[in-house]
Amino acid sequence: MSLSDDTATRVDDGPVRKRRSLRSRRPAVLGAVLAVIAVAAVVLVVSAGGGDERPAVRAAGGGPVAGGTLTYALAGTQVSLDPAVAATAVTGLIDRNIFDSLVAQTGPDTFAPWLATKWTVSGDGKTYTFTLREGVTFHDGTPFTAEAVKASLDHVVDPATKSAYAASLIAPYEKSRVVSDHVVEVTLKRPFTPFLQALSVPYLGIQSPAALAKPVADYRPVGTGPFSYVSWEKDKRVTLRKNAGYASPPAGASHEGAAYLDTLVFEFVPEDATRWGALTSGQVQAIAGVPPVNAGKLRSLPGFALNSQETPGLNYNLYLNQTRGPLRDVRVRRALSAAVNVEELVRNIYFGHFPVARNPLSRTTASYDPTAESELASYDPDAARRLLDEAGWTKTDADGYRVKDGKTLTLVWPYWAEGNKEQRDVLAEGIQAQAKQVGIKIERPAVDTGAFVAKYLIGGGYDLVDVSFARPTPDVLRFAFASGNTYAKAGGNVALVDSPQIDRWVEEAAETSDPATADKDYAAVQREVLRQAYVLPLYTPVQLTAFSAKVRGVAFDAQTYPVFHGAWLGD
Amino acid sequence: MAPLAIRLARRLALTLFVLWGAATLAFAGMRLVPGDPARIIAGGVQANATPEVLDAIRDQYGLREPVGVQYVLFLGRLLRADLGGSYQLGRPVSSVIGEQLGSTLSLATGAAVLGFCLAVALALLTAGRPRARAISRVLEFCSISTPNFWIGILLLAAFSFRLRWFPVLGDEGAAALVLPCAALALPIAGVLAQVTREGLERALDQPFALTARSRGATENRIRARHALRHAALPVLTLSGWVLGELLAGTVVVETVFARQGLGHVVVAAVRGRDFPVVTGVVVLSALTFSLINIGLDLLYGLVDPRVREAAA
């Protein structure tokens, strides 16, 4: 026995080695040096410019090839795949491939047959009779009949469905009646011209009645579209498979018959940089939501194509609450509008990828009136100062803000961070700074969703609110400016406009069957809201989509949804 | 054996108390946030839900009852281990969590193992070696002060987008787990390495280290066999903190790497006021915390005989 109390040391150590010192240094130094080299290598690799392994552009020779998987990375995610329930843009995009609609939108206000081969509208504009396409079956084998149309529409308006969006599109819906197997009659409570447009969106796609009859927890989207649903891994991906028997594309589609792609995968990738890297390294074939700062770079990269689609509907606008404080005075509203150099701000922030807006409607919307912008109080800081003088805001305080009756000219613009996208917060800072130049103080309290809805949108405690709303119909003007469409009543009138004249115009336009009358009414609304400066148009949101050059044949429909029915993968 | 049983029973009772506290806090938190829950469940700000839809939601989830009654009902369900159904997903909370748990668990376990191994290796190599320690310290401070988010982006840019060694999207197989685990492990390894090294250095200055050396034990043996055991206690104590870091980090890492997981679920649930899902995740986290702490308590005894004797 040795004196050591540690048997392990004694037994295992063997002969005593000679040591230069008690504490050896070599391995540690070596390890640390290796670590430094590794970090340096990472930094070098990351910062090294120019990719060398990128797929080269090949000449587009030969016809479409069937087969393959297309992976499309999306920015958002979704809570439900039921188009009748969800309000998220992602759901519409995915469901567009699963569901066909009764009619297809082909232009700003033109429609083509799809699942309905023809339709008639009664003289009073309240009854629509649809004749349906025969020989179409749902993915689950259920035949497509008038029953399916009735079941789909009834499902949308059923309060138990908890529709967040679809039901609001067909608010005047009263009932559907099955006339025969392939004729269905839809009755509305009042004439409603935007009805056909509503029917053409994926949120009102026709669903299999057998699938709708199942309990909510077992819901699977079953339509008649070119792709059928396979799986949804929450927050990860949705996988669709080709519907081999597909034969019901909308009239005028570039491709008949089944889709070329075997599989269509939608990946949810929330991080911009990750999505961008996944595309440029060839791990996905397409991405949505290309950051504008990268869009320019993409043009110089071989092997990729950028697609930009201007969103129809309401632009990204700033709405001026005309019922509260200083903004009750139209001169102050016009002063704010004239204080902001929208054009310069938008061009600088978005690198020219987002068009500057000078009208609440985007120019791709039906009944858009390009002459209405003459009513807009455009950038003119001197005019803005004059208007403020006229309105009685003649004094200035120590910070340069206008004062009247001892009160500073202050406007509250709540900042709802969760809804922030496309660097809108940066744009707002620019607006804030320019308003300050003429003496208007804009406050931006940061608020969470609950407070934003309760205290501001419903409580009305704001002067300014910014929002965009995409929908390809001029009826969005009714959504945004009719007195009955305040946020509390599920509308978008956040400027709290209360004008009998505007109400008359938008209602007449929604009920008339004469396009010329509708155009005239909508033009009048565009002029009036700009003249009254209820709204300050900022920019037209653009969907920036990037594809690998291998992807061919993707089309975009009138609602800017990508159509994968005719897409194929080249080499 | 009896004292151990009593101690365990006491700890388990305490765990129940912690669970009740966590659930109550979650309940209070979700009710105190301003705003009408029905409207947020209906889809938030963008939703154009009609008043009829809002009424249907209030009826279905009992949102009209006084808060006190809602609380009692909530506790009753919890006692029966019934987490309820998700408001947004229309499915039982247990299945929502169960489906995502595996992904988060493999990420967190991988990161914890990687973090501990890195920390111990670094500490063993650099303790008591001033130059190596200085270099290692710089790296550790870098990794501690860099957000997970940025580490993740750098790793992706280098190893996925540029070198293409690892996929960014495929979540099948071990290859897809490497980068997320590394992003999550590096800050943890930084802190643990510092603590471990300090413990090692203190142990190496003790007379027993000199004794072992005098018997001819190699440096590596002294460090790994003798000193490490002394350095292990503070590291064990920090394990609770590591768990918290892992939970917080998974939310970020899952976003950057587009992974499924509980982090995603809980963020979406808080935003969408999906109360049953939030409660489910909170209760599960509290339970994990408590159980790991009980496990650590028992481990102290294994590592350090003095603790064992004091308890007996």
Automatic annotation (TrEMBL), chain A:
InterPro entries named among the record's database cross-references: Peptide/Ni-bd, SBP_5, SBP_5_dom
Membrane-spanning residues: 27-48
Keyword Nuclease: no
Region (Disordered): 1-20
Record keywords, A-Z: Membrane, Signal, Transmembrane, Transmembrane helix, Transport
Pfam families: SBP_bac_5
Biased composition, class Basic and acidic residues, residue ranges: 7-16
Domain Solute-binding protein family: 111-477
Superkingdom classification of source: Bacteria
Family of the protein in this entry: Belongs to the bacterial solute-binding protein 5 family.
Name recorded for this polypeptide: ABC transporter substrate-binding protein
Lineage: Bacteria, Bacillati, Actinomycetota, Actinomycetes, Streptosporangiales
TrEMBL record, chain B:
Pfam families, sorted: BPD_transp_1, BPD_transp_1_N
Gene3D superfamilies on file: MetI-like
Chief subcellular location: membrane
Transmembrane region(s): 105-126, 138-161, 173-193, 231-257, 277-300
Domain ABC transmembrane type-1, residue spans: 101-300
PROSITE patterns assigned: ABC_TM1
Membrane topology: Multi-pass membrane protein
Name of the protein described by the UniProt record: ABC transporter permease
Organism of provenance: Microbispora hainanensis
Organism taxonomic ancestry: Bacteria, Bacillati, Actinomycetota, Actinomycetes, Streptosporangiales
